[in-house]
Predict the 3D structure of the following.
Amino acid sequence: MTHPRLERRRAEIGKALKIDDPTELSAALEDIQTLLDRCGYHVRFQHFEAKLRSNATALRTLKPTALEKRRGRPKGSANWAERQFALGLAEIWRAHSGRRPTRRHNAFTGRDYGPYHAFVERVRGLLPGSVQRTRKSHVPSVDYLVRVGIEELKQATRSSDEARQRGLIEEHRWLRSDAQP
């Protein structure tokens, strides 16, 4: 069952993906719903971890070295939820429209545009504001999501890893090194 907010945009998403068949459109909406749920769980977990870290006294009583081991993300790590969301949208676009996602840029206005850009903008508009914002209340732009999605999809198609080819970012790019077994 897809979320009512997603169902209200059914016609817009179908038009963006150029899908006329109701069954195919339902499958695309289910894929989008799964992506939103998966990224939403990760964002909520990040918020939970941030609350735990902010309560330093409780952490010190649980584990004396907890604050020393990890203070924020490791250098060079990417925001996993944003990158996974962008990759997921690119994969959905490719799977359901039959076209590779592309980025078009208008040199006169300095803005990106195009059918894939419009699709990403529509789907991002479905997210509640609290999920869209990152830890510093920055909302990633549609242009950023388009660029990242295209780049991640290129890397995924070149990869020999089956999970990566299915649209999942490798664990080592988002899992903390101290959390691995």
